[in-house]
Each structure stands twice: as C-alpha cells, then as structure tokens.
Amino acid sequence: MDEIRPGDGGATDPDLDPDVLEELELWGDLGEDPEPGGPAVPRGGDGALVLVATPIGNLGDLSPRAVRALEGADVIYCEDTRRSRKLLTHAGISGTTLRSLHGHNEDDRIDEIVRAVGEGRTVAVVSDAGMPGISDPGSRVVGAAARAGQTVTVVPGPSAVLAALVSSGLATDRFCFEGFLPRSGRERRQRLESVAGEPRTTVLFEAPGRVAGTLADLASACGHDRPVVVARELTKLHEEVWRGNLGEAVAWAEAGVVRGEVVVVLAGAPPTEAAPVGDDVLTAALAERLAAGERTRGVVDDIAATFGVPRRRVYELALDWRGPTTPASPPAE
User: Fold this and answer.
1) How far apart are CA 325 and CA 296, in angstroms?
2) In whole angstroms, what is the distance from residue 21 CA to residue 251 CA?
3) CA distances from 40 to 61, 88, 101, 195, 306 (A)
4) Do 62 and 84 meet the contact criterion of CB atoms below 8 Å apart?
5) What are phi and psi of 149, to 5 degrees?
6) Residues forming beta bridges with residue 180, ordered by sequence position
7) Is residue 321 left, alpha or beta, with left meaning phi > 0 and alpha meaning psi from -120 to 50?
8) How far lies 148's CA from each of 49, 124, 209, in Å?
C-alpha cells in the first residue's frame, strides 16, 4: 500500500472531510494487522472461538488472514479431518490438533469447545467449504459460546450463497436463504408453497442427483415461467452458471447429468394486486362495531387502514348504515 502523505488525500490532509478522517482512523485501528504474520484474532490472552471461511473450490481463495488464524489456533474443529488436513498442508500448516465437528456430533462437542475457550484456548471452526454455520455445523456452538460471554470472531471469506446470488443477475437487494429443502412429505410441500409465494430472491442448496426433481417441483409450485439460475462448481475449473426459467431448467437438468456442488437462485414471486374490497364487506365490519357503541370516527379510521381503502368511502358507508343523521364531525382526509 502506498504511503499516505499530507496534501494527497491522506489521513493528515487538512482538506479531508472530518467524518472521512474519523473513518480512516477507525480502519487504521481495526484493519489489517501491521505485523505480517501477526495474530488474526484479538489479543489479550483470553480464549476465543474463531469461525474461519474456507474455499468453496478454488484453493487460491484461502485468505492470508485465514491462514494466520488457522496457524494460531490451539485446536481446529472441522467436518472432515482428512479434508481439512489437506487444506492445512496446502497452506503450509502442520502440527495443529484437528477434532471432528459435524451434524451428528455438534451437540456433543459444545461443552468441550466452550470449556476450551474458557480455559484461554483459541478454537477455530471450519466447514468443508465456505462459512461454517451456513447449512454446516457451527451455529449451535456459536450460540453456546455467546451465552457464556466468550469472544466469538469471524474470518470472512468464500460463500457459495453470495457467489451464486451476485452472479445470477437476479435481484440482490432483498433475498433469503432456504438451504436444503426437505426431501419429501408434507414438510417439503409446505416449504415449496412458502418459496413459491416469497417475493424476495431465494437461494437454495441441492445435491446434484436431486436437482432435476427439485426444479420440477419448483416449476409445479411457482409456474414454469419463473426465472431461475443454477450455479454449479463455483470457483472451480468447470464452473457453470445456467440462466433461464423453471420450465427450461427442468428440460436442461433432465437432458444430462448435473455434476458438482449446486446452488439454485430463484426469482421472487411477482407482485399481485389485492382483490377489491366490496361495500358489503366494509358495511358488515362497520355494523359490527358501530352497533356495539364505538365512536364513528375511530371505527372509520381503523377499517380504512385495515382494508387499505379511502377513509371517505368508509365514512359514507357509515352514514348510510346510521341513516339520515348529522355526524358529530366530518371525515378528516
């Protein structure tokens, strides 16, 4: 990084906006450790739980800070010790204790990990790929450590969710992550119905052998015209990002064998216009409350807001229901 000098927009430039200067100073305090190879977690001697993102395919995505965090860990918990050992070897790290942490033993490991952090040890958690805790073990461990008041920090990095989302070309301002859909039964049908009505972009994971079936189910629930993107083998040599609609996606998946890790990005449900509210519905709602003795103004306000209709319309219906009487106050628009 070039040295910042006065007069060239640097931190000591008297013409620099004070708010920008304050932000630069903050990043100077919290940003990259000035010592190459220095600690990647907060100093202080206390233990810490460190979540470390690992590559989702391309080993070049392992960040220098991730390497330092793994080097500095007293113990690393990982889904598959053999796979993580290969990653450590690639990074030139040896001698670090590895312990398994997967979907079948996470609950059994929680007390062990919290105790280790409480004893002042640095415990790193990694998944086989991407960020631990996202459709991978780690979230329950983090919850337990947080409840115990322990330091939890993250070394961010590769994410299949975000990589697929930003490459999809679909809306990214609002999105949700569904993970893996249930494989069958009522729970799967309910989740499919929920996804079909979701207005935000939805990101899902799926195993390659089940992609065709899931796309077919999504087409049945959402309609064949709903835009969808299927990303596979992200960051790897054979990366592919397929774009089209669900009807086309079903044909594409059934035409050949889908290989590798798969992320499905589904466009949100199109907005629908609410059915118009009839006078009979509004009058019935008015009659129930006015007959109970409630004040006209308050009832009109509530019903107009509830049904999303103009207040004057509701007010005139209230007058019709009451008959030819003079209201205490006119409608306020």
Assistant:
1) 12
2) 55
3) 17, 16, 22, 39, 53
4) no
5) 75, 20
6) 205
7) alpha
8) 12, 17, 41
Looking up tokens 């996202």, which residue turns up? 134
Contact 159, 130 (CB under 8 A): yes
Q: Select from 4, 2, 1 the least CA-distant residue to 24.
A: 4
Q: What pLDDT is attached to residue 45?
A: 61
Distance CA 59, CA 80 (A): 17
Contact partners, residue 308, CB within 8 Å, separation at least 6: 274, 277
Provide the token pair at 155: 């070394």
With a cut of 80, say whether residue 22 has pLDDT above it: no
Greatest pairwise CA separation for the chain in angstroms: 91
At residue 52, does pLDDT exceed 80?
Answer: yes
Q: 55-70, pLDDT tens digit by residue?
A: 999 999 999 999 999 9
* Torsion on CA atoms 287, 291, 294, 297, rounded to nearest 10: 40
Q: Do the strands 240-245 and 227-232 form a parallel or antiparallel pair, or are they unpaired?
A: antiparallel
CATH of domain 46-158: 3.40.1010.10
List, for residues 223-267, the tens digit of each pLDDT value: 999 999 999 999 999 999 999 999 999 999 998 878 888 999 999
What is the token pair recorded at 130? 């991407």
Rounded CA-CA distance 311/288 in Å is 18
User: What are the pLDDT digits (tens) for 65-86?
Assistant: 999 999 999 999 999 999 999 9
Please tell me the predicted confidence (pLDDT) of residue 26. 43
CATH 3.30.950.10 at 161-266, yes or no: yes
CA separation for the pair 160, 55 (Å, rounded): 9
Q: pLDDT, tens digit, for every residue of 127-177?
A: 999 999 988 888 999 999 999 999 999 999 999 999 999 999 999 999 999
Judge whether 215 and 246 are in contact, CB under 8 Å: yes
CA distance 304 to 292: 18
**Helix, strand or coil, per DSSP, at residue 159:** coil
The packing angle between helices 139-147 and 106-118, to 10°, is 40
* Residue 42's pLDDT band (cuts 50, 70, 90): low
